[in-house]
Structures are given as structure tokens and as C-alpha cells.
Design brief:
Elements (H helix, E strand, L loop, with lengths): L1 H4 L26 H13 L2 H12 L15 H9 L2 E6 L8 E2 L5 E2 H14 L2 E6 L3 H6 L9 E5 L8 E3 L4 E3 L1 E6 L13 E5 L5 H7 L4 E5 L2 H10 L4 E5 H11 L4 E5 L6 E8 L3 H13 L2 H12 L9 H4 L14 H38 L4 E4 L5 E4 L1 H6 L5 H4 L11 H7 L13 E8 L4 E11 L8 E8 L1 H50 L5 H33 L7 E3 L1 H11 L1 H6 L3 E6 L6 E4 L1 H17 L5 E10 L4 E10 L6 H6 L19 H11 L3 E7 L3 E13 L20 E5 L3 H13 L3 E5 L2 H10 L4 E5 L7 H10 L6 E5 L4 H9 L4 E4 L4 H18 L7 H8 L3 H28 L2 H18 L2 H12 L7 H28 L2
Parallel strand pairs: 1-4, 9-10, 9-11, 20-22, 26-27, 26-28, 28-29, 29-30
Antiparallel strand pairs: 2-3, 5-13, 6-13, 7-13, 8-11, 8-12, 14-15, 14-18, 16-17, 17-18, 19-21, 21-25, 22-23, 23-25, 24-25
Helix pairs in contact: 4-10, 5-10, 5-11, 17-18, 18-23, 19-21, 21-23, 25-26, 30-31, 30-33, 31-32, 32-33
Protein name: Sensor protein EvgS
EC number: 2.7.13.3
Main location: membrane
Length: 979
């Protein structure tokens, strides 16, 4: 029954010692003859025949040997009593030798043999399941196991374990894929697997040196790899390969014997130090007939397919807990509940992880600085949005390249990244470096930092990197550094300039004081006194020239220097300028020559004062730094077209010359060469020349060699003309001074008041004095004056405040301001507060005469008119008579249009047009300060237009018409007198 129907589920445990049971053939009572025949037949059967017949039906071998007890020694019997239970290492993946059923019991050839040994000895075997022989090797410790069945004998293994006598021998075979052209040999380059515990590995390696040998843990598991093509062949035992191929790979694999190698010997292995167990097992195995072993082997080879769970053979990262007992329904429910709880917990953890990832993503993208993460190989694996937006769309591809790529903008980062060492979170090192990076548009300077981040679940760390764009900061620092250097240089130049100015100012002042001291004495002759006065005057003029240079620099730098071009005869201007330096050249025995290739009768349009100042400065320097030799000036005109040309002038000297370093500093303010500091001068002349030429759209260059000399070249584009007669020249008119003027002087400095009073007395005028603005305002309120000359800087009330007070009182008194501050904004400030003129000190007699004559002309004009406010007109036009005429004629023309239009709009009932015309007349009257017209037009503007008010409005319009007629007469007279 067991062999037919319960091969895998039942085993023979032992033979039951009970009275023998017999089997009979039953017949009917009335079949006496049949009963007798059967008895005779059965009695005639021998025991051998009976055994053969039973074996044909039982198919279970001859187990009669089990009835004979083993011949064990007393010591061995005692050992069995002390060790009734033994641990067997069971590999369920080695069919047909060793398998397990669904209950975990040992099956296969070794299972049946162990059952027989149990029947023979009474030993109980507890299986310890291992997935393969590597796991079995971990159990080879004393006390961890007792028997290893189906162990293949090898000399190497005998050093660790002892073997029982071999009871199965089987050849080694090669297993390969079945193919039409299959050859029973190994070829070069094949991948052949061999279990690591096979002793013939070295022998096969020598036999097949060109084959790649791969050691595997389990031969049975390697069959699938041969079938899938991962391996070309496999070394296995014949019984194992026969079972695997017949049951699982019948049409896919085949095997053939390995020639020249010994057969595999299968036996039981034991821990060393257990000789009793070895002897007991050997006696039990010897008692089993070889035919029984062969029968058992054939039985399991022919057994139907057995499902083998091979998951453990392919998993190296998980441990499978083999359940040795049947799981109860309750444990299944508990396990399911545990899994459900794990799933829920995993979902919660996954949700938290997703929230954390989302939060970190939002946090990363909210950072204004570009941030990115790089793995150990230098690949950018993550970045925030600022990183992507920093680059152009095309260059973003380069930014995502590996950092070791030469096209990556971060290649400088990766070269130093591996120097970063991992440290604790409390002391994590951050590495920074500054370098330039290309963002696809331009090079940007960044301050880059990176640090190492260890990932607990990963073998390699990552780099967290970020940067801050410091391009603007760097440029600002650079600009600040440049400005700082400029400030330092300016301070040095200023100190040098102050030292130079101290010398340049104190020297002429000392000379003037010396001459004045000589003049105060009586020991000088008339000629000596004239000479002293002349020299003192010349010294004062040179001092004024120095101050003028400083003021020119300020005008040029502030943009207030205004060129006044006019038609000029350049050869004559150059010749006259050279002639003025003739005495200086003669005193130093220097040959001064001036030549020109200008065509005759050509005039150029240029500012003569600026051109002369440039020429004078360059010529003065040439003579100053030339001790011997010559100074040559050449002038030429290069034509561009009929109306335009270029002036070219060179000033060449044979002086000391300049080095390259000195030439670099030459045109800077307050700059002087080492030779120049030995001469007098402010260090501003060449700088002024350079700026003046620049304002004239020209160019100033130099060529100099130390010890040879210097050549300055000037080129200026100009307009030209040959029509000499077309150049208007104003004939000098004699200056006519007004008579009997009463003049008030306001100045806190008594010396200045005395000098100005003496100058005005010399011109025949009565002068009154005031020490400040308060006193001057009081005197004007008590007495009539024709002119007020006031200093702008005074205590209590300065000249500007005094002027404003007088203008607020509607005073038309002419006011002249005097200031020692010769800056342009000072003059504008005076004119804006109501002064008629703002003059710069010192005030010479010629300047006084010129402006007093203009005061006479305006005063003469003002006495002829009753309605026109010439004083207001003069203030608005800065005494420009031509502009005054244009303004009056424009007023006359516009009012002659607006007044008839107002009459017509009033009659048509067009109130809007009427008020627009009156508003225009009112505005023009305000500009010219026509008080009567202002009052009438204002009354017309505020009077509402209606039928009741029309008579009043017509009367006012007629008054405007009459007043404009009177103004027309005065305007006509003014224009005729000033044609």
C-alpha cells in the first residue's frame, strides 16, 4: 500500500512484534472438491516461489534484513542511549539524494536510508534545512549538527569532517543545452559551472585550460542557468543530472560523461570526534544490501515530478524563515493582521516621506541662490529652480554635464571635490572658492561652496553645492578700489598742488609786498618808482593768471566752459603770440621761430581766446624747459572740403625731453615731472590745454625723447572761408560815462571799500559806504542812489539777501555784485536773486568804465518811457538790446491778434475763446511787468460774462485797446532808437 499509494506521505517505522497473521482463500461449504484442490496447490508452493510472487506485487524490496538486529558493541549501544536524537543537515535542493516534503520531512534516497537506519538502531533524526552547501558550511561547528548525508568525498573536506563508507558511486558528467549540432566536448571560451565542493576542480582546470570555470553553490540550481544560456555547461553527478533532465529539462538539456576522472563517492559525513557514530552508521549501511540501495535510487529517479521551491537559491539579500510546523488559522490571521498593520504603517511613512520630499523641494526652490547635488561620480542628480534659471536654455545642457567634463561650467569644482572629508554634523566642513562661470550670456563671478553629505543607506556620499553671484559686488569693490586709488592719488596731487600753490602764490605776493615797501620809502628815484610799480603790477597779473588757470580747470570739469568761436586769422594770431614770448626766448638765448603754410586770405572759425591760451601754455612750457637750442612753431591747414579744414600746429623744442613714465602722468591735474618741479608752475597748464582742445573737437599729442626734446602736435577741425570782407568787425566806439551818479558801496572789508571808492572818485562820482547789508538797506531807504555795488559775502546780511530784500520792495535800483569766488555758479546765483551784474574781483578801471557806460545807455532809455518797464526787460535779457527788441515786437504782434479775437468772441457768445484771449494778454503783461495792463486784464478774467456784465466788459476791453495803442508808440520809439 505504501509503495503504491503513499510513497511521499508514509514510511515504515518498525515491524510490529505480534502473533503472525495468515491469509486464506475462502470457498463455499458445498465446494469440497475445489477446497481440496486449492489446499494441495498451496502446499506444493515452496518458500522461494511464494517470495517471488509477493515481490512482484509489493515492489518494496527485501526488508528481511531488518529482522536481524545489528551487532553493536555495548559501548555503541550505550552511546545510542545517550544520543537518541541526531541533527541532520538537509539540503532540499539536491534531488534525488535529498528532498523535503510539505511537512519538512527528509525524502529522497537519503531519507529512505535514514528511515532504515532508524529501524535498525532506534536513532531519531531531526532535519536542519539549509538552502545550499555554503549554509551547510556555516553549521559545521561542534554541537550544531551530527550527520551530513549525501556528502561527496574529497581529501580537502576530510580535514574538517570524517566520512562513512561510500554506499553510492556515480560518474561526473557535463550538462549542456541540447542542439542539433551539439558536440560532447568543451570549446574555448565556454563558461562552465562547477560546485565548489567538487574535488575535481583542479583536475578539470588542467584538462580544459581555455574554459572559464565558475564556481556555484548548488549544482541543481545551475541547471536553469544552462537552460537560459547564462552558462554554457555544468559539472554534475550522473544521478543528479539524470533526475533534473528527465523531470524538468527533457527536451532542452543533455549530459555526457567526463572522460578521465574518478566517479563521485556519496556517503555520510560526521563531525570529527564522533567515532562511535561513524561506526554505528557504517554497520547500519553495511547491513543494507546493495540491491536495496539500487532499488531506492531507481525508485526516486522514476518518481513523478516534485515541485521544488528554489527562491532561496536566487536570493542573497533576504533570509527565509522556514516554518517547521503547520501554521494554524489563528497564526495566519495574526500574520495577516501584522501585514495589514505594516501596510498601513508603510503608507503613513510613505505619506510622511512624500510630505518631507515636497517640503524640501519647496524649501530648495525658495532659496534665491542656485543649489545642486552631485554624486560621487560627478553627475548632477538634483537642483533647485534658481539653478535652472541662472543659465540660458541652451547653456543649461552644459550645466547638467558631469563635472569632470571639460565643457561643464563646474569643472573647477570637481577637481577639488575629492579632497573633502566626511565629518560629523556638529563640525561639518564647508569648502568655498571664488571663480568665474559662464551662464550662456557672459562670464559671472561666483562664490561657490560645497560640503560632503553621508547617506546612511548608500555606500557613497554626495556633495551639496551652492553659490552666490558676486559679480556686481566684485565690480563694486573694484570700482571702490579704483575710486580709493583715485582719491589717494588726488590727495597726493592735492598736497603737491597746495605745496606748489603755496610757493606760486607766496612768491608774487612777497614781491608785491617788497615793491610796496620800497614805494613807501623816499629813497627811490622817479624811474625806480615807475619800475617798481610796473613790476608789482606785472607780478599781480601773473598771480591773477595763476588763479585764472585754476578757475578754468573748474569750469572745464563742471562743463560750464563755453567756447565763443569767431572768424580768426590764425597766422596773425600765432605770430602775435610768438612775438609776446620773444623777450623770454632772447633772455635765454633760444632761437624762437614761427612758420606757416596757411593759404592767404583764409579765415577759420575758432575761439581765439582758447586757442591763444593753448598756444601760450605750450610755448611757455617749451621755453621753460629748454636751456639751449631752439623752439619752432609750424602751422598748416589741411582741406577737407570747401567749407571745412583741419588746423595742424606743432610746437617743437630741444629741451630735456620726457620719459615714458612722465608722459603717462603729463596731462593729469596738478601733475609735474621731476624737472617741472624745479620750475615755477601749477601743473595745470597741460591739463587745461588737453581739455580745451577736446572741447574744440581736436586732438593734442606729444612725442618726446629724454635728452632730445619734445614735440606737441595740435589738430583741430574748423570751418573756413575766403570772404575776408564778409567778416564783421565792430569798430571801437569811445566809452561815454554817465554824469553825476550817486553810488553806494557795501563791503565789510575797509581796504576793498577804500580802493573801489578811490576808483569811482577818480571817475568823478560821489560814493557812500556801508559795512554790511543791513546798513546798506537802511541807507537806501533814507536816500536815493543811482547804483549799488555790494560784496556778496558780508556779516549780518550778505549781498544776495540784500538784493532779494530790495527786489521784494519792487526797487529798480541797479545792483552790481562783487565776489572773489570766480566760479560760474556764483555768478548765476547773483543773477538769479536779482542782481544786474555779478563781477569778479579785482575790479579794474577799464572794467568799471565799460559797465558804467552800459548803465548810462540803459538809464537813458528808461527815462523816455511811461508804460514800458525797461528795468524788468533789462533784468530778463541781461541788458541784451537786440533781445529786448525781439521781445517787444513779439508782444506787439501777438496782442494785435488776441485783442480783436476777444472782441469777436464776446459778440459771438464764445466765452471760452474770450477768456483764452484775455489770459494770453494777461500773461504777456506779467512777463513785461506792464502794471496797468495786468490790472485791466485781471479784472476781465474775474468778471463773469453775462448779458448784464457785457457793458462793463466792453468798457474794460476799450481800455485795453487804448493802453495797447500807447504801448505801440513806446515800442516803436524804442526800436527806432536802438536800430
Amino acid at each position: 500500500m505504501i509503495s503504491r499509494y503513499f510513497t511521499h506521505s508514509l514510511n515504515v517505522v518498525k515491524y510490529y512484534n505480534s502473533p503472525r497473521q495468515y491469509n486464506f482463500l475462502l470457498t463455499r461449504k458445498d465446494s469440497i472438491v475445489l477446497n481440496e484442490v486449492l489446499n494441495r496447490f498451496v502446499d506444493a508452493l515452496t518458500n522461494e516461489v511464494r517470495y517471488e510472487v509477493s515481490q512482484n506485487w509489493l515492489d518494496t524490496g527485501n526488508l528481511a534484513f531488518l529482522n536481524k538486529p545489528l551487532e553493536l558493541t555495548e559501548h555503541e549501544k550505550q552511546w545510542i542511549k545517550q544520543h537518541p536524537d541526531l541533527k541532520v543537515l538537509e539540503n532540499p535542493y539536491s534531488p534525488p539524494y535529498s528532498m523535503t516534503d510539505e511537512t519538512g520531512s527528509v525524502r529522497g534516497v537519503m531519507g529512505d536510508i535514514l528511515n532504515i537506519i532508524t529501524l535498525q538502531t532506534g536513532l531519531n533524526f531531526s532535519p536542519i534545512t539549509v538552502s545550499h552547501n555554503i549554509h551547510a558550511g556555516t553549521q559545521l561547528n561542534p554541537g550544531g549538527w551530527d550527520i551530513l548525508p549525501a556528502a561527496i568525498y574529497s581529501e580537502d573536506r576530510e580535514n574538517n569532517v570524517s566520512f562513512a563508507e561510500a554506499f553510492i558511486t556515480t560518474p561526473y558528467v557535463f550538462v549542456m543545452q541540447k542542439a542539433p549540432d551539439s558536440e560532447q566536448t568543451l570549446k574555448k571560451g565556454m563558461k562552465v559551472a562547477i560546485p565548489y565542493y567538487y574535488e575535481l576542480h583542479s583536475q578539470l582546470k588542467e584538462m580544459y585550460p581555455e574554459v572559464e570555470w565558475i564556481k556555484v553553490d548548488n549544482a541543481s540550481a545551475a541547471f536553469h542557468k544552462v537552460k537560459e544560456g547564462e552558462l554554457d555547461a555544468l559539472v554534475a553527478t550522473q544521478l543528479n543530472s539524470r533526475y533534473m533532465i528527465d523531470h524538468y529539462y527533457p527536451n532542452e538539456l543533455y549530459h555526457f560523461l567526463i572522460p578521465g576522472v574518478q566517479n563521485a563517492s556519496l556517503s555520510f559525513a560526521f563531525p570529527r570526534g564522533e567515532p562511535e557514530l561513524k561506526d554505528i552508521i557504517n554497520k547500519a549501511l553495511n547491513a543494507i544490501p546493495p540491491s536495496e540501495v539500487l532499488r531506492l535510487t531507481e525508485k526516486w529517479i522514476k518518481m513523478p515530478n516534485v515541485t521544488i521551491d528554489t527562491w532561496d537559491l536566487y536570493s542573497e539579500q533576504f533570509y527565509i524563515v522556514t516554518t517547521l510546523s503547520v501554521l494554524l488559522v489563528g497564526s495566519s490571521l495574526l500574520w495577516g493582521f501584522y501585514l495589514l498593520r505594516s501596510v498601513r504603517r508603510r503608507k503613513v511613512i510613505q505619506g510622511d516621506l512624500e510630505n518631507q520630499i515636497s517640503f524640501r523641494k519647496a524649501l530648495s526652490d525658495s532659496l534665491p541662490n542656485p543649489t545642486y547635488v552631485v554624486n560621487w561620480q560627478g553627475n548632477v542628480i538634483s537642483h533647485n529652480s534658481a539653478f535652472e534659471h541662472y543659465f540660458t536654455a541652451d547653456y543649461y545642457k552644459n550645466a547638467m554635464l558631469p563635472l569632470e567634463n571639460s565643457d561643464s561650467p563646474f569643472k573647477d569644482v570637481f577637481s577639488n571635490a575629492h579632497e573633502v572629508t566626511a565629518e560629523t554634523k556638529e563640525n561639518r566642513t564647508i569648502y568655498t572658492q571664488v571663480f568665474e562661470i559662464d551662464n550662456g550670456i557672459e562670464k559671472r563671478c561666483i562664490n561657490h561652496w560645497h560640503t560632503l553629505c553621508n547617506l546612511p543607506a548608500s555606500e557613497h556620499a554626495v556633495y551639496i553645492c551652492s553659490w552666490q553671484d558676486i559679480t556686481e559686488t566684485r565690480d563694486l569693490i573694484h570700482a571702490l578700489e579704483v575710486e580709493r586709488n583715485k582719491a589717494i592719488n588726488a590727495t597726493v596731487a592735492k598736497s603737491q598742488f597746495l605745496a606748489t600753490m603755496s610757493h606760486e602764490i607766496r612768491t608774487p605776493i612777497s614781491s608785491i609786498m617788497g615793491f610796496l615797501e620800497l614805494l613807501s620809502g623816499s629813497g627811490l628815484s622817479k624811474e625806480q618808482r615807475v619800475e617798481a610799480i610796473s613790476l608789482a603790477y606785472a607780478t599781480g597779473q601773473s598771480l591773477l593768471g595763476l588763479i585764472g588757470e585754476i578757475l578754468d580747470v573748474d569750469k572745464i570739469e563742471s562743463g560750464n566752459y563755453q567756447l565763443q568761436p569767431q572768424w580768426v586769422d590764425i597766422p596773425t594770431l600765432v605770430q602775435n603770440t610768438c612775438h609776446s614770448f620773444g623777450a623770454i626766448a632772447a633772455s635765454k638765448s633760444i632761437a624762437l621761430s614761427c612758420s606757416s603754410t596757411f593759404p592767404e586770405h583764409y579765415q577759420v572759425k575758432i575761439d581765439p581766446q582758447a586757442f591763444k591760451q593753448v598756444l601760450s601754455n605750450l610755448l611757455s612750457n617749451a621755453l621753460k624747459f629748454t636751456t639751449e637750442g631752439a623752439v619752432k612753431i609750424t602751422t598748416s591747414l589741411g582741406h577737407i572740403d570747401d567749407n571745412h579744414a583741419v588746423i595742424k600746429m606743432t610746437i617743437m623744442d630741444s629741451g630735456s625731453g620726457l620719459s615714458q613714465e612722465e608722459q603717462q602722468q603729463l596731462f593729469k591735474r596738478y601733475s609735474q615731472t621731476s624737472t617741472g618741479r624745479q620750475q615755477t608752475g601749477s601743473g595745470l597748464g597741460l591739463m587745461i590745454c588737453k581739455e580745451l582742445i577736446k572741447n574744440m573737437q581736436g586732438d593734442l599729442s606729444l612725442e618726446s625723447h629724454p635728452g632730445i626734446g619734445t614735440t606737441f602736435t595740435i589738430t583741430i577741425p574748423v570751418e573756413i572761408t575766403q570772404q575776408v570782407a564778409a567778416i564783421e568787425t565792430k569798430a571801437e566806439q569811445p566809452i561815454t560815462l554817465p554824469e553825476k551818479l550817486s553810488i553806494l558801496i557795501a563791503d565789510d572789508h575797509p581796504t576793498n571799500r577804500l580802493l573801489l571808492k578811490r576808483q569811482l572818485n577818480l571817475l568823478g562820482y560821489d560814493v557812500d559806504e556801508a559795512t554790511d547789508g543791513v546798513q546798506a538797506l537802511h541807507k537806501i531807504s533814507m536816500q536815493h542812489y543811482d547804483l549799488l555795488i555790494t560784496d556778496v559775502n558780508m556779516p549780518n546780511m550778505d549781498g544776495f539777501e540784500l538784493t532779494r530784500k530790495l527786489r521784494e520792495q519792487n526797487s529798480s535800483l541797479p545792483i552790481w555784485g562783487l565776489t572773489a569766488n570766480a566760479q560760474a555758479n556764483e555768478r548765476e546765483k547773483g543773477l538769479n536773486c536779482g542782481m544786474n551784474l555779478c563781477l569778479f574781483k579785482p575790479l579794474t578801471l577799464d572794467v568799471l568804465k565799460t559797465h558804467l557806460s552800459q548803465l548810462h545807455q540803459v538809464a537813458h532809455i528808461a527815462t523816455q518811457y511811461r508804460h514800458l518797464d525797461i528795468e524788468a526787460l533789462k533784468n530778463n535779457t541781461a541788458n541784451d538790446l537786440q533781445l529786448m527788441q525781439e521781445i517787444l515786437m513779439t508782444f506787439q504782434h501777438e496782442t494785435h491778434k488776441d485783442l480783436p479775437a476777444a472782441f469777436h468772441a464776446l459778440e459771438a457768445g464764445d466765452n471760452r475763446t474770450f477768456h483764452q484771449c484775455i489770459h494770453r494778454i494777461h500773461g504777456a503783461a506779467n512777463i513785461l511787468n506792464l502794471q496797468k495792463l495786468i490790472n485791466i486784464s485781471h479784472q476781465l478774467e474775474i468778471t463773469p460774462v453775462s448779458d448784464d456784465s457785457k457793458p462793463e466788459i466792453l468798457q474794460l476791453l476799450n481800455s485795453v485797446k487804448e493802453h495797447i495803442a500807447e504801448l505801440d508808440q513806446e515800442i516803436t520809439a524804442f526800436c527806432q532808437q536802438n536800430d
